[in-house]
Amino acid sequence: LEGTFEIMKGFTLIGHYTDFTNRNPNNIPFRGTAEKSAAAWARYEFQSAGLKGFNVSIGANWLAERPGDAASGLTAASTPANPIPNKPSFYLPARTLVDLSAGYVRGPWSYQANIDNVFDKRYLMASISRFFVYAGPGINLRASVTYKF
């Protein structure tokens, strides 16, 4: 589910929510796949003559817990009449991140600064197994200058 709304001139909200099932034939979720996620982004473009061209944004995105490893095969307790599939041995916890952005457009030039993970949240981004788990990046600053021709 996704929606974009212009609340008033220059103020836009964008949001999404996803709830799906992504599993193997044994009904075991795939490694690294969050079956639920949500995000929201609010952007305001200044309309007054003195600030025309400036914009600011804030957004948050959330991922539910995800299996940390790929479970496959059947347990030793399985029988031909009662197969018992292996399950993931651990899950990466759910996380929520907040981002900020500010920009300016003047003619063919645009300037933008972003701050990702504003609150420097510590989280686990991905994993291959219990022995290879990757931490997500901390606060991150980015800037760009674009010329359109």
Structural class: mainly beta
| Helix content bin | under 10%
- Our Rg estimate from Cα atoms comes to 21 Å
Helix segment count? 0
Number of strands: 11
Strand order of the largest sheet: 1-2-3-4-7-8-11
**Which range does the strand content fall in?**
over 45%
Determine the mean pLDDT.
Answer: 94
Low-confidence parts: none
Overall shape: elongated
End-to-end separation in angstroms reads 35 Å
Largest sheet: 7 strands, antiparallel
**What is the string of SSEs from the N terminus onward?**
EEEEEEEEEEE
Short recap of the structure:
By secondary structure, the chain is mainly beta. The chain has no helices and 11 strands.
Question: What layout of secondary structure does this protein have?
Answer:
Blueprint: E1 2-8, E2 11-19, E3 36-45, E4 54-63, E5 66-67, E6 91-92, E7 95-106, E8 109-116, E9 124-129, E10 132-135, E11 140-147
